[in-house]
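From the pipeline queue, job 12 of 40. The input is one protein chain; the requested action is below.

Action: predict structure.
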Amino acid sequence: MGIVVEKGESKTIKRKEMIRTVKVTRYITPLREGGSLPAIAEADDQFLYVLKFVGAGQGSKALIADLIGGELARAAGLHVPEIVFAHLDEAFGRTEPDEEIQDLLKASKGLNFAIHFLSGAITYEPAVKPPESLLASKIVWLDAFLANVDRTARNTNMLNWHNDLWLIDHGACLYFHHAGEGWQNKFNEPFAQIKDHVLLPLATQIVEADIFFKNVFTTEIINKIVSLIPDEWLENEMDKIEVKNAYSQFLLQRLQHSATFVNEIRYAGTSI
């Protein structure tokens, strides 16, 4: 299956048009609570980032999910910290005294995933300043679309920063890419896990959100975001173009069949 390209659209875009690449200059501290062993690091632009490593146990698929999920959220006008590709030199981390961290750094040379560190941000708490219903509905819709299992009351993966709600950590999205050859059958799944979404009680405008996203997520937007996946994150794949095509086709098919998960959201909302 090839990427559907609208007339006049280039099939590829230069990575620099949407994502900057920075060079990691200093490893500051690990964030032990993350499944991908993230860390706070400084880059050559003097900014701090939350860095996720391609050499972590979850591998490059978690980074791909983070990239696609984050950039789709941004395309929809939701607040997401800037995403960058973070380059690690081969020699980086040799002086790190912690052997586990040193092994992780050595295994992660090349491009990694990072988001801008939001200094002073606080974790979203459901009882404190809940978002208005349309915003909540957009976030719930997007997480159902992406099959994001990681936006629960126990782990909201949202931050309050400068009086706005910011979305972080989409690494648990798109678990269809773990299905192997059966991925084609996953686009029409309802996503029953949406019942655990922290914002579900506020998501009373799902139909409006569905209309909104179907206008925003054009073929061009989806293809451009998927094209940002670095080839080196697909180094174990025989046909990198075909893998990217699969991501595009999955997202386009899931969008076309959004009624399946929209109905699941509405059913889950009535069961609260």
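Job complete. Residues 7 and 127 are 48 Å apart (CA to CA).
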